[in-house]
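Data deposition worksheet. Section B asks for the primary sequence of the deposited chain exactly as it was used as input, without tags or linkers unless they were present during the calculation. Section C holds the resulting structure in token form. Section D is free text for depositor observations; keep each observation to a single sentence. Incomplete worksheets are returned to the depositor.
Section A, Depositor: J.P.
Section B:
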Amino acid sequence: MKNVLAIILITVSPIFVFSQNRNTIHCKITYLPTIKYENVSTKISKVQAKKIDSLIHLKSYKIDFSDDDLKMIKELYEKKDFQGNKIYKISESTFLTLLKQKEINIDFSRMNSASQSITDLLSSVIDGSSFILTASTKNNQFTFKDNFSGMPGLKELQKYLIFYSIYNEITFCKKNNELVKYYFGRKNLMKNVMHFMEKMESK
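Section C:
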């Protein structure tokens, strides 16, 4: 009898744990070199869970630019490093197209077929604040692993954009975490757009 009960408990426990994690966004951040942790779960509604399911299955992602966005894009396009070289090396024609169209449509299939550069690999292992974000719904579990101190590589941009959309509707991690707020803020989104355009042009 005890053996039967043990088998039942072993079988039911994972199901119970999984059901407990449904409709949540789990945020785990490791702060280096101090090795401090932040571990927070945020409950979401069924309506929000359905929106996340839709985001996960998107084939492309459209960003409409406001006047403030275009101003930031212009500033980033003109920004130079200490040696006088442009930080974002996109062509003038691409830059002018962005200004004219006031939108960009990012095709995820193009990103998934792209090869990772050394810069992408370095940014993914940089010291700072590595994180694991997991969105769990009844139908899906979607995980994004990266570093708040770097920039997502080309293949990780899809996950970044999905969690960007989630964050700007549902604040996850600690609400007063300025690092997370900046990472999923509008200015950092524009930086990622410029990074994406540069990588697509260099393919």
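Section D:
The CA atoms of residues 112 and 155 lie 5 Å apart.
The chain has a mean pLDDT of 83.
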